[in-house]
Amino acid sequence: MEPRVTVTPSTVKQKTVVTVKVVGAPKTCRSVQAKSDAFTRPVSLTKKTKPLMYTGRAAVSGKAAPGSHQVVVGGVGCGKWVAKTNLTVPAPNRSKVVKGTVTSKVGLFVRRQPTSASPVAGTVRYRQTIDLVCKKAGQPVAGNRTWYRVAMPKGWVTARYVKAAGVVPNCR
């Protein structure tokens, strides 16, 4: 039986811990190690019996590049063998918040939903800078159907009276 290696979970964010398991490695190994450019350092795996396997926990680096990384496991003192598998690090979600400036001289209500009939969650003042998280279509206000989700106070403001300093992404 050829040694097989698994990494659980196989898709992880940076700065996470994974479990590396090898089944089918020779019994005579003095040590078994797992290496990957995604790991903070090589990991020595511990021998378990019934069934025979080697396991260990590895830390994924905060600097691990997004994409697929090869995990290579090999033994010392038990013949030349190598087992490989892949670990995927997804791209971090770096959704940028766009700044917006309130243009309504009387300020704006922040609504719980993108409609003027929704309850008020808070208010923002004239010329106040607010964080625009995303946008979506809602009830038209003075001909403008776009509403922005705002971070603080949490809720929605009409785009009719907010000047965005960049492109606001669509809400998912």
Q: What keyword list fits this structure?
A:
five-stranded antiparallel sheet, single chain, mainly beta, 14 strands, rod-shaped, 52% strand, 172 residues, seven-stranded antiparallel sheet
Task: Give the strand content.
Answer: over 45%
**DSSP helical segment count:** 0
Helix content: under 10%
| H and E order | EEEEEEEEEEEEEE
Mean pLDDT, rounded to whole units?
Answer: 91
Q: Order of strands in the sheet with the most strands?
A: 1-2-5-4-3-6-7
Radius of gyration: 26 Å
Protein structure class: mainly beta
The oligomeric state is: single chain
Distance separating the two termini: 47 Å
Q: What kind of sheet is the major sheet?
A: 7 strands, antiparallel
Model regions low in confidence, pLDDT < 50 over at least 5 residues: none
Number of strands: 14
